[in-house]
From TrEMBL, chain A:
The keyword Transmembrane helix applies. CDD domains: ATP-synt_Vo_Ao_c. The keyword Methyltransferase does not apply. This is Spore germination protein KA. It comes from the Bacteria. Keywords: Membrane, Transmembrane, Transmembrane helix. One of its GO terms (biological process) is spore germination. The chain crosses the membrane at residues 293-312, 386-404, 416-443. Residues 485-515 are annotated as: Disordered. PANTHER family: LEUCINE ZIPPER PROTEIN 4, SPORE GERMINATION PROTEIN. It comes from Tumebacillus permanentifrigoris.
TrEMBL record, chain B:
The lineage of its organism: Bacteria, Bacillati, Bacillota, Bacilli, Bacillales. InterPro entries: GerAC_N, Spore_GerAC-like, Spore_GerAC-like_C, Spore_GerAC_C_sf. This is Spore germination protein KC. NCBIfam families: spore_ger_x_C. GO terms for biological process: spore germination.
Amino acid sequence: MWKRKTARKHQSKQHAELLNTEKLKQQRLTSSLQDNLDSLKDLFGHSPDLITRPFPGGMVLCIKTIVDLKRMEESVLATLQDGLRLDKLAAVELFRVQDQGRAVQELLEGSVLIFQQNAEEAFAIRIGNTEHRAIEEPQTESVIRGPRDGFTESIDVNLALVRRRLKTPSLRVEEFNIGEVSRTKVQLLSIEGITSSKLVNEMRQRLETIRIDGIMESNYIEEFIEDSPFGLFPTIQNTERPDVISAALLEGRVALLVDSTPFALVAPLTFWGALQSSEDYYSHFTVATALRWIRFVFLFIALLFPSIYVAITTYHQEMLPTNLLLSVASAREGSPFPALVEALMMEVTFEALREAGVRLPRPVGQAVSIVGALVIGQAAVEAGIISAPMVIVVSITGIASFTIPRYNFGIAMRLLRFPIILLAGTLGLFGIVIAIMILMIHLSSLRSLGVPYLYPVSPFSWQGLKDAVVRVPHWAKNRRPFLLQSPSPLRVPAGQNPEPPIQTPQSDAKGGTDT
Amino acid sequence: MTKQSLLLTALLSAALLTGCWDRREINDVGFALATAIDRDSKGTFQVAVQVAVPTALSQSTRGMSNEGHTPVMTVISQGKEFDHLRADLQTQMSRKLNTSHRRVLVIGESMAKFGLHDVLDEFSRNPQNRLRTYLIVARGRKASELLSIEYPIEAYPSEGIREMEKLGLGTGSTLRDFLIESTMPGMQPIVTTYTLTKQQPHIFKIDGVAVFHDLKLVGYLEGPGVQGALIVKEKLKDSVFTLKIPSGGDHYINVQSKEIKCKPHVEIQNGKPHFSYHVAIQGIVMQNTSKLDLINPKYIEELNAALAKKVCEDVQAAIGQLQKLKSDGVGAGTELYRHHPDEWDKLKDDWPNQFAQQQFTVTADAQVRQVGMLGPQLEIPSSEVIK
């Protein structure tokens, strides 16, 4: 293992050299305008969208496809008509560029480079076109009550959405450019004074070690910084919702915004966090608690129901009530496959249907679901291929797996179902117990950024349970999660629970005189 | 890494490839629903097992016609030696016989008189057997006759017996109760007896209580004794008492019992045990043929007294009949054993005879709580109503 890792490091070094990023940083701009332009043009391979435009006393260079042409005309070229005068430049972001590496970087960020004759430096004005999709409702985490804005593919918009919610100077944003080729912007968000510096340092370290050619989506990052790369369970949460990110930051967690994807990352994530929806905090706490419990119950159904059906009908018939057993027996009469095969067949079909429904364009997807309902539901039973109870089991399991609010967590549960069905079919309930034990051992060994995955149940914490097993009212959620080691653990001052006003004759009289 | 994966492969192939699982598909198992055990005068045992036929069951539950298609199949095996019969039953079955869903165990009268010593071990040892199987006795008949009839209101006949046992008209004795009662010091089991109705087509009906002693049937309780025994066992539910009260003349008032509590008490007086039972019973009026307006608390008081008297009589009758049979079906000995173990030690060896000589006091506290929707009868003119 150790050998392989060093080999990989060596390779990445070569990779970086290939891209010449380090070397370019060494090359300073020269005093010759033409030399500077030529070497940059060479670097870009004389790309047609790399354009130059002369002005009195110098030359302007930019990539026209990624700059805002209107701004370029109005605020750069118009001002430059009389030569470069820095005090006249109406630019928000103005940088001095002294080496080629920086020049290349600025060009790619959408800057206009202003070269002057006989100057060993250039000025960069960021006027990148900020074209982005409009802010829409998040597709993956819809709520009935709650904010409807979701992240877009533009990291600036995303940061703005978070800033709008956390109006504090303590919001810390650290920027990383990850990917030797893609140079994708990744921003590490935390709140000074709330987030533990250990967490931020750990996340920073993990981000700094990433060597990759390009980042297309935040999952690239996720897989590099996960605590258990081979585990099925997600240890880093992804979300499209700025309110989720903001709430996580307030809890003392850290967030990562990744450019060019609406999915931001939050760490650490616990098992219970994976079962929570943002709406838990926007609906009444009793309702939220009840819904959480429904999710717990259906989590087990999603994981175990087909296995329990297989185990009981093939090994432990004595466990069913007699009437139920006999009706199951009469339904299974004449079905050609053993319960185990039946269960595996139906579950695989169900997963295939779900996948087809997701992947296909929406109108076709509906057709798939209609055919699927007929095939899985009625036809298979009437043709005598599948027994009717199995269809009920599969559909309940399907519904159960959709109650899990985090999609990637639900997928983990769905995949785990298959080995458990196999164990149930070979060892009966004993097999299911073995599966649960293995699962428990695995879950309790998981860490997410150092936080035990099953916290606050194991290790146990009363304060933590207030927001895991139940959802207490906001005025009772006094402390931040203990294991996040926040420097200011106190969150909500105690004693804020609303009470009916004390009605005494005196206070009534006093109230009367006041008004 | 390779070592681990090798181990995993070995474990997986051991689990999946060898096929040495005790998997049995639900349609390879024959579920016994009831068993009838008989013995004829020549000493031949007969075991009849009623097995569910799932296909026929699904047809009958789906509302299709099921003429001549009872959802059960009866398998019969005979032999001199009881122990071999189970193996013999399997030789007639295409599916593995499974007794974990047996609801009812019917003992024929001659078999019950012969004694259940040989039978019970199989039922208590094999883990497949449910201890909650109801145990009943077929009075004056072969047990298999009870299982051979049609009982269309339930999906299969044995379900009918089970539901009747649950109604509280019989003792509701399960195998577990029977085993407890026959091994408890100073107690003997009593179980419900069933017989077939005289009219055609025959169906089974509850016909009293059988009294066992040392696992052998020794006799039956008759008339009020049946009700009395059920009162002492607190098993009676919704039973109707027909009462006369002084103000009502010759007319009857029917009272249905609701809650029954029976508290036994034993104390030693002059070195001899004295047993007393106190029954607390609640009732509601079901029928009033007299002209009385039952709203009047005076009549309710009379009703209470009449009900209490009837209950005492029933219990006394039950105890009297048990004393004649020399079988302690009410568990008086157990009370003595629990509260005065020293006295019990003196009496236990000769308890059947001692039980027959004991004195029992029965008191009752009856409360009629409801008179129904009417005070007097509806159809008699109000001038005739006795307020």
